[in-house]
Specification:
With 391 residues, this protein is α/β, with parallel strands linked by helices. Helices cover 34% and strands 10% of the residues. Helix 6 links the parallel strand 4 and strand 5. It binds zinc ion (ZN). Zinc ion binds next to loops.
């Protein structure tokens, strides 16, 4: 019997390297793939090797002039514009080629699903959700998931749901499809008044041709697993049930973790694991089982990202790793070699309970004011009753 999902990976994806001091360090990808392999999650799995996306593919969502600037930037002087050469988006060698390969990763995942080869595909290098049509933004050069969604729309898909659980607003993907009723973008993130990129308020609900096609859930700093999951369940399943997507695309940034150095939500690895299992169930229930998963942010490089995304890959493959699984010594020894002072966790869990009380329509918890605000902004646009918890 075949596996339910495909995994896209090639060590060449480590070439998306913004430099030694930059928080988005590719070691997080390498340590994830190594941990997944060591735990047996990848046993018998043929890793699909992506190619660099072509200019034509990338230009689905980016301007040709921007591609030219990215390609020339490593050879150009200091002023290349387009958001390049900034502390967030430093120019690096082979920036175009490395970024095009990330796009190729998400495109390959999309093609696998569209061809019927698999129902699920995951590529942890993808998920560069901030990149805009004509500029780099928030560590992201090309918007791989927007390219993949655009390609899918031209290859048989008419309704795609995009679900972004990164701690930052999925602004680039939202911008690409803000006025397109075929794409429902849902982003849960830390309140933009307190965090980059400063967008993602509840009243951003889509353009004039696509009312309700953008959904934003701005969560207060320090929101933990239970409140996060309460908000998710109060908003997301109803919208998916109504929208009836043919495919769920998810950006699985893990910078929501309480140890993440760049943001202030308080989720745990156990919360992340629960999110993946929930998304899988929602894809089964509402999207014909079709699920394209990508990575995203996550800057606790050693202690969080490898464990969380190993859970992600395992979930895609129906090889769920029990939370209390001990971290294999083969893996921890490898990390010790590259980071001798790091204190590593002992298991695949943070030991947190993820039991939450579903929202019941009353104001019982701090997050409920956000739930009501979001539902009132967007539920009526989908014919749903914002005040009725059954909707
Ligand atoms: Zn992020």
């Amino acid at each position: 019997m075949g596996l339910p999902g495909s995994v896209v990976w090639d060590s060449a994806l480590l070439g998306y390297d913004l430099g030694g001091e930059h928080p988005l360090h590719p070691v997080r990808l390498e340590l994830t793939m190594r941990l997944a392999a060591t735990l047996g999650v990848l046993d018998g799995v043929e890793l699909l090797v992506p190619q660099e996306a072509t200019d034509e593919e990338i230009e689905r969502v980016h301007d040709a002039g921007y591609l030219a600037a990215v390609r020339e930037a490593p050879m150009a002087g200091w002023d290349v514009g387009h958001g390049l050469g900034t502390p967030d988006n430093p120019v690096f060698d082979n920036m175009h080629e490395a970024s095009a390969r990330v796009v190729g990763s998400s495109l390959l995942a999309a093609r696998q699903i569209a061809s019927g080869t698999t129902k699920r595909a995951v590529g942890i290098a993808g998920g560069l959700h901030h990149a805009m049509r004509d500029h780099a933004h928030g560590f992201c050069v090309y918007n791989d998931l927007a390219v993949a969604i655009s390609w899918l729309l031209d290859n048989g898909y008419e309704r795609i749901a995009y679900l972004d659980t990164d701690v930052h607003h999925g602004d680039g993907v939202q911008a690409a499809f803000y006025d397109d009723p075929r794409v429902l973008t849902i982003s849960l993130h830390q309140n933009p008044l307190t965090l980059f990129p400063g967008t993602g308020f509840a009243d951003e609900t889509g353009g004039p041709n696509a009312p309700g096609s953008a959904v934003n859930v701005p969560l207060p700093p320090n929101t933990g697993d239970r409140a996060w999951l309460r908000a998710f369940h109060a908003v997301v399943p109803s919208l998916l049930a109504e929208f009836q997507p043919q495919l769920l695309v998810s950006q699985c940034g893990v910078d929501t973790h309480h140890e993440d150095p760049l943001a202030s939500l308080s989720l745990s690895v156990d919360g992340h694991r629960t999110i993946y299992r929930t998304v899988r169930a929602l894809a089964e229930q509402y999207a014909g089982g079709n699920w394209l998963a990508a990575g995203g942010g996550g800057y606790a490089l050693l202690r969080v990202v490898p464990r969380s995304w190993t859970h992600l890959i395992a979930t895609v493959l129906d090889r769920d790793v029990p939370a209390d699984t001990t971290l294999p010594s083969e893996w921890t020894r490898f990390v010790d070699k590259i980071a001798p002072t790091a204190e590593l966790p002992l298991t695949m869990s943070d030991g947190k309970s993820v039991d939450f009380e579903p929202w019941d329509g009353e104001d019982g918890e701090r997050v409920d004011s956000v739930i009501k605000e979001v539902r009132r902004a967007v539920f009526p646009l989908h014919g749903l009753d914002p005040d009725d918890p059954r909707d």
